[in-house]
Amino acid sequence: MDTDERLLALTLRGMAYACRIVPARRPCGTEPLVLIGGALQDMYSWPRLERRLTEHTTLMLMDLPGTGSAGDLASTAGFDVLADAALHAIDQLAAPRVSLLGASYGAPIAYRLAQAHPDRVARLILAGATPRVGPRLTAVVRQGLELIGTDAGTGTGAPADDSARQDYARKVVDMLVNSATRHEVAQGPAVARMLERQLMRTSYSAALRHAACHERLLDVDLYPPGGIDTVRTLVFTGEHDCTSSPEENRAVAATIADATFLLIRDADHMAHLERDAEYADLVTRFLRDLPLWDLPYCQYPDTPGRPDPQGAISGAPQHPTHPHPHAHPQAPGPKGPQVPCG
Known about the structure:
Blueprint: E1 6-12, E2 15-22, E3 33-36, H1 47-53, E4 59-63, H2 79-91, E5 98-103, H3 106-116, E6 121-127, H4 135-147, H5 162-176, H6 188-200, H7 204-216, E7 232-238, H8 246-253, E8 259-264, H9 271-274, H10 276-287, E9 298-299, E10 303-304, E11 321-322
Parallel strand pairs: 3-4, 3-5, 5-6, 6-7, 7-8
Antiparallel strand pairs: 1-2, 2-4, 8-9, 10-11
């Protein structure tokens, strides 16, 4: 652990949670970056990305209520409650504005925070965003809920046998690391093996909490209407993502007036593990207002305009697509080295 990092215990409306603040390793001119991760992650789940990003910026990572070391979150609490908790943590930075990175489960939290408090958000990054969980992932989540015999994390059942857990773990991994294109994904088989081992080693109590988080994703529109007008935003995922498809990420980007949408080549939903050097380079470039155009590790689908005046997410855009206004051709950026999974 970095000797300069700070651990903060926080409480809001009776909810106990925590965050880590890891300072930049050299002077930087960017706002602190707040990273809100996925349902299976905690504030120690990003070590390789953390090392790369803190070369350029101070980083805050959170265990929001219901995740990691934090206390439980009521099953009736939604993403607005988590956005409020994230803002309360950000207040501890004493920074007028921050940049936000919301990944997967963290994306609707970051979106809501930026939508409600645009004056506090210098830049917004959404990775692996979807307007609504699709039928395949819904089926996997419901299988997980049945497997642990719980409803909304109440813990009314008992641990399943190993064969049932193995079947479920493989289905989760097949969503996170696209089984259809795994050998086209950088380090895809290695990341899949690592995730399956991690899921099989998950304790019953941790599985209950994961189930509660996943159930929060079901049967709801994850992004409220109204869109975002005043926050510069990057939306991206891996080109092979089947958990939050490129089309779904594109639909989220369509609700944001100043959004850049792109895809990382040879990656899927777990791009931060599969191509961590490129992922960090992309995020750092955006934070430093460097060109994002013509990076060798990215694809550039056109970014759609907002589909309606209210900015509601409806899937396919209603207006013709157009390139992002800042996407002017530039010299290719550096391609980071591949780092073995581990």
